[in-house]
Amino acid sequence: MCGRYATTRSSGELSALFQSSDDTEGVVRPDHNVAPTDRVPLVRVSPEGHRSLCVGRWGLLPHWSRSAAGAARMINARAETVATSRAYAGSFARRRCLVPADGWYEWVRQPDGRRQAYYMTPTDGSILALAGIWSVWESGADSRLTFSVLTTAALGDLAEVHDRMPVLLPPERWSSWLAPTDEPERLLVPASAERPAGLEIRPVGAAVGDVRNDGPQLIARVSVPPTVTPQDLTLF
């Protein structure tokens, strides 16, 4: 977790939702199947001090990385260790961001060996803001804005799908997450306080397993035998 997610809103809609400038230069496109190292929108504080919607690559590269080869292994940072990890601590202390998402995917192994995909998404269609951290990696003329998503222990019925989930930030916590602080550890509210009300666990088709596939059909509900897989759930 989390290895695949969806972000389909336009840059104009995202900049309005997050009350940020739009600095994406028109490159944001709907993506129902975001995969590691893809370029996607994120919200951070600009050097001028305002919220900026920009584009980064999923998979944080610390500035000291010798190459970009390891980016796909750096898509997630554990909330329990992000403050002490050599790769993530600097970004957590000074470079936090919000990662807009419509929902994320996980897979459950079935008794017959098949993997059933599930899509976790708000039932009311609202935006999710995943807690993220970012860094700029440079090698010669290659300069990349990169990021990771923070994860924590899964809550409630989400644990039946996977033991981890992204750290979800409600709107009232966006400003504090982005703001400078000398004690960033206080931003990591215990998981029990982050109740993802109205979050649907939706069974979806196998097509999402291929990163080459995209489109709204990937998030369409499919029927699954209730004796084989968990029933569709709504949290809390």
User: How many extended strands?
Assistant: 14
The poorly predicted ranges are: none
Global shape: globular
Give the termini separation: 21 Å
Order of helices and strands: EHEEEEEHEEEEEEHEE
The largest sheet, given as strand count, sense and whether it forms a barrel, is: 8 strands, mixed
Please give the count of helices: 3
Please state the CA-atom Rg, rounded to the nearest Å. Answer: 17 Å
Strand content: 35-45%
Mean pLDDT: 91
Helix-and-strand structural type = mainly beta
Overall helicity: under 10%
What would you say this structure looks like, in words?
The chain has 236 residues and is mainly β. Strands 2, 4, 5, 6, 7, 10, 11 and 12 form an 8-stranded mixed β-sheet that branches. It has a 6-stranded antiparallel β-sheet with strand order 3-1-8-9-13-14, with no helix packed on it. The longest helix is centred in the first third of the chain and has 7 residues, at 11-17. 8% of the residues lie in helices and 35% in strands. The model has no long low-confidence stretch (mean pLDDT 91). The protein is globular, with a radius of gyration of 17 Å.
Secondary-structure map:
Blueprint: E1 5-7, H1 11-17, E2 21-22, E3 31-34, E4 39-45, E5 51-58, E6 76-78, H2 89-94, E7 96-101, E8 103-109, E9 115-122, E10 128-139, E11 142-153, E12 164-166, H3 174-178, E13 199-204, E14 233-234
Parallel strand pairs: 2-5, 5-11, 6-11
Antiparallel strand pairs: 1-3, 1-8, 4-5, 7-10, 8-9, 9-13, 10-11, 11-12, 13-14
